């Protein structure tokens, strides 16, 4: 790795590495001064910003398995907002930054682990998500209270806490007239409007790309391969992924996209080539042959297992590689805590030395164990609750010290969660706890411990910031509890909104197979008889089969009714007049109304029962299904997060891959059900080991193997922009956490992610009506402009180039928010 480069990211991307040398510390605000600190407006503003950046972190975590440090943007915005409302002080801004950063630290654990429930055949419950987030976060804060004196104070100069030190620098700069919040707000506005333009208004394509080869049939009926069959190139022209790439830099971005290149330009073409002659389905319960699969279907059927094996190996390798550091960190952390407890305390503690009392820690820990054990939504037993507290204490201690030594990016949170999950599953296996309910409990156990570890490292950074600027520890700790609880109220909701907004109910039958759990829930489906006119179809040169895709896009399914006649089906109770007036875009580009092709009349409603597949007793993929009264499966309710169906009738479905959740579900299934295709998993394992032997960090590469190439390509573009800016501005050290390029990228991420969440929310509350109403190409009908918006790769790339150019210009020419010695901002 080149000198000065940030360490390779695992889960969270810090934005600066600025170690401070050992020296005696004098806080910016002396201990004998007590300016307003824990104010109501500070807690409110911090909570709002924490929810905002927590929501964007949830979005990123389910999309690419990463989150980005939010401390610096929150500190910058706090300074700007309070400056607009009247002068504030540095300690009040520190409280805002502390409350706000809690949302981002919780978001990763929640969004990385809880979607695995969807892959195990459960749903994400709001109360379960809130309790996991809140209890895990509170555990992380509680465990850090007795460690503060030893880790933050006594080892100042030894533990640098780079992110916490950088946040203190920004707060001091803001107190002295520096920082530039306009850059963050500009990025937020541009990212949000850009996302709305393509995800809401549909003014350009969300994903641009092309296949590099295909199979065509000659006039003689012979199949002929053309080009590089199975290969494809694609890119999601996304503001948030562009921003992530800029922040993590060219090296990590390059390694990540290299994993996508291996998947889409090597492994998928190889599987397509060798599987083209197979006459039997391979690892498929639906009977689909490899020769009939497109690249995305091959990825879903085979590459996901290879990628999951690589990601698991990368996470465990990072944990094993860190074991000496982790063991030493825990040993030294406990020793520091004991030494601080033995120190004779003065009769009157200085303001800057006052922590919450040990009684709060003891009572809080006991209360946590009881709450986790007795709270019905968690379904935990006493053994699991105790395991969470033990693992939580160990990993919080380790996490706090590792982030102090080498920063958040090298803190192996995923490895800690994997270790907790492996330990829990092995204990359960020895006790014979292998049911579906036990798998639910194992995931909850690991999620709580992982959130505690994640929040422990962030809490340590915040306590370091407060100590450097002269904050009061007990006020800081209270603010952390407030941040945890307020963010927890919304993080689970964001996860639910993203999932439900992209959930698709897709026709799917499995003759002879039945769900493992048949619930009392039902879903009602509206039907409409459609007397299609053969003459109307012939005039427009289409068949009913060609209408399935366009009508599916409009929320209507074309199917045969009980008597064999065509009917339309929908999950919304639309009046028949609305169905008849629905616009259908034909393959020729012409738009017609449903009624122009045949009369539509209201039909009877159908009621389906909801069933779940959980466990190893059936070959069906785990998930939610709709069945008739006889128990026959007719539909799969494919979740938006981690869903296995990427398109239907030629229409792409919005999907969030959630790579870390897929990994956790893989581990649980692998140990407790033993039904994985281990050959494919082991291919991923050895790919990761090969990279480590070559001296390349395997985890970002493995994430690239797992994610679609369309997700890693914009990250790579952002990394290339960062490389240009670094060269022009004088190297990576010039791009500090409060540089203009970083601040604009943070705005891109937050704006784009929040816009994505809002669009998903509109989809839910209006049953798709509002998102269809703002679909500009649908309103334009059969016009050249509509075809340009929907079909042109060049148009989408051109708009993305403008977004990229703005980032390049800002990073190159923008003013830094840090004042020089004369009080002026430096370029």
Number of strands: 16
Low-confidence stretches: 1-10, 13-23, 819-827
Radius of gyration: 27 Å
Structural class: alpha+beta
Distance between the termini: 27 Å
Membrane topology: Multi-pass membrane protein
Subcellular location: Membrane
Keywords: Membrane, Transmembrane, Transmembrane helix, Transport
GO molecular function: oligopeptide transmembrane transporter activity
Structure write-up:
It is found in: Membrane. It is a multi-pass membrane protein. Keywords: Membrane, Transmembrane, Transmembrane helix, Transport. Helices cover 59% and strands 11% of the residues. The protein has 29 helices and 16 strands. The protein is globular and about 90 Å long. Mean pLDDT is 81; it is low at 1-10, 13-23 and 819-827.
Give a short overview.
It contains 29 helices and 16 strands. The chain has 827 residues and is an alpha+beta fold. It has three domains: 322 residues, no CATH class; 188 residues, no CATH class; 134 residues, no CATH class.
């Amino acid at each position: 790795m080149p000198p000065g480069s940030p360490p390779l990211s695992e889960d969270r991307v810090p934005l600066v590495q600025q170690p401070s040398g050992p020296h005696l510390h004098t806080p910016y605000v002396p201990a004998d001064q007590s300016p307003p600190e824990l104010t109501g407006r500070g807690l409110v503003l911090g909570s709002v910003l924490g929810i905002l950046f927590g929501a964007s972190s949830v979005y990123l975590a389910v999309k690419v398995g990463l989150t980005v440090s939010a401390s610096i943007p929150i500190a910058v915005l706090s300074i700007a907002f309070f400056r607009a409302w009247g002068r504030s002080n540095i300690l009040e801004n520190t409280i805002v930054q502390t409350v706000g950063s809690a949302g981002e630290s919780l978001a990763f654990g929640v969004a990385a682990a809880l979607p695995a429930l969807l892959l195990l055949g459960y749903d994400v419950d709001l109360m379960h998500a809130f309790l996991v987030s809140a209890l895990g976060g509170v555990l992380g804060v509680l465990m850090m209270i007795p460690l503060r004196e030893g880790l933050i104070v006594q080892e100042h100069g030894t533990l640098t806490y780079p992110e916490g030190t950088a946040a203190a620098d920004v707060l001091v700069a803001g107190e002295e007239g520096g920082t530039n919040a306009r850059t963050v707000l500009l990025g937020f506005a541009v990212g949000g409007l850009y996302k709305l333009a393509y995800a809401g208004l549909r003014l350009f394509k969300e994903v641009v790309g092309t296949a590099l080869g295909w199979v065509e049939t000659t006039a003689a009926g012979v199949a002929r391969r053309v080009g590089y069959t199975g290969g494809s190139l694609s890119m999601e022209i996304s503001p948030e992924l562009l921003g992530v790439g800029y922040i993590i830099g060219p090296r990590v971005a390059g390694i990540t996209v290299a994993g996508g290149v291996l998947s889409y330009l090597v492994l998928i073409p190889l599987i397509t080539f060798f599987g083209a002659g197979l006459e039997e389905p391979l690892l498929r319960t639906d009977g689909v042959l490899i020769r009939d699969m497109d690249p995305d279907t091959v990825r879903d059927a085979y590459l996901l297992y290879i990628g999951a094996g690589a990601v698991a190996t990368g996470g465990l390798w990072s944990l094993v590689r860190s074991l000496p550091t982790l063991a030493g960190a825990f040993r030294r952390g406990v020793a520091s805590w004991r030494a601080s407890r033995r120190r004779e305390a003065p009769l009157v503690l200085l303001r800057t030395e006052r922590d919450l009392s040990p009684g709060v820690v003891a009572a809080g820990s006991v209360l946590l164990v009881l709450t986790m054990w007795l709270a019905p939504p968690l379904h935990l037993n006493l053994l699991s609750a105790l395991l969470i507290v033990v693992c939580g204490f160990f990993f919080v201690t380790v996490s706090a010290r590792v982030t102090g030594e080498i920063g958040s990016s090298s803190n192996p949170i995923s490895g800690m969660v994997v270790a907790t999950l492996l330990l829990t599953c092995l204990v359960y296996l020895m006790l014979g706890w292998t049911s579906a309910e036990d798998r639910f409990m194992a995931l909850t156990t690991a999620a709580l411990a992982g959130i505690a570890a994640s929040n422990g490292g962030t809490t340590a950074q915040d306590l370091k910031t407060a100590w450097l600027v002269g904050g009061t520890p007990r006020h800081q700790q209270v603010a952390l509890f407030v941040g945890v609880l307020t963010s927890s109220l919304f993080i689970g909701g964001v996860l639910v909104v993203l999932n439900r907004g992209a959930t698709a109910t897709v026709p799917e039958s499995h003759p002879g197979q039945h769900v493992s759990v048949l619930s009392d829930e039902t879903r009602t489906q509206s039907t409409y008889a459609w007397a299609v006119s053969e003459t109307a179809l012939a005039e427009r040169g289409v068949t009913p089969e060609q209408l399935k895709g366009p009508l599916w896009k409009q929320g209507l399914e074309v199917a045969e009714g009980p008597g064999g006649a065509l009917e339309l089906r929908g999950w919304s109770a639309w009046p028949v007049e609305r169905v008849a007036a629905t616009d259908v875009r034909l393959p020729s580009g012409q738009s017609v109304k449903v009624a122009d092709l045949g009369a539509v009349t209201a039909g009877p409603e159908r009621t389906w029962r909801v069933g779940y597949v959980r466990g190893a007793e059936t070959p069906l993929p785990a998930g939610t299904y709709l069945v008739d009264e006889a128990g026959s499966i007719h539909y799969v309710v494919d979740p938006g997060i981690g869903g296995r169906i990427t398109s239907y009738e030629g229409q792409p479905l919005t999907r969030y891959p959630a790579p870390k959740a897929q990994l956790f579900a893989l581990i649980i299934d692998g140990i407790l059900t033993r039904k994985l295709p281990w050959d494919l998993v082991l291919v991923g394992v050895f790919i990761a080991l090969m990279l480590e032997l070559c001296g390349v960090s395997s985890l970002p590469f493995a994430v690239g193997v797992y994610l679609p190439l369309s997700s890693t390509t914009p990250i790579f573009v952002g990394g290339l922009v960062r490389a240009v800016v670094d060269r022009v501005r004088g190297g990576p050290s010039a791009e500090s956490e409060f540089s203009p390029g970083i601040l604009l990228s943070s705005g891109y991420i937050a704006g784009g992610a929040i816009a994505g969440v809002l669009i998903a929310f509109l989809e839910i509350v209006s049953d798709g009506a509002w998102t269809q109403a703002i679909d500009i190409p649908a309103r334009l009908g059969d016009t050249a402009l509509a075809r340009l918006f929907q079909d042109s790769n060049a148009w989408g790339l051109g708009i993305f180039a403008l977004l990229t150019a703005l980032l390049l210009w800002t990073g190159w020419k923008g003013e830094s928010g840090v004042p020089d010695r004369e009080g002026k901002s430096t370029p």
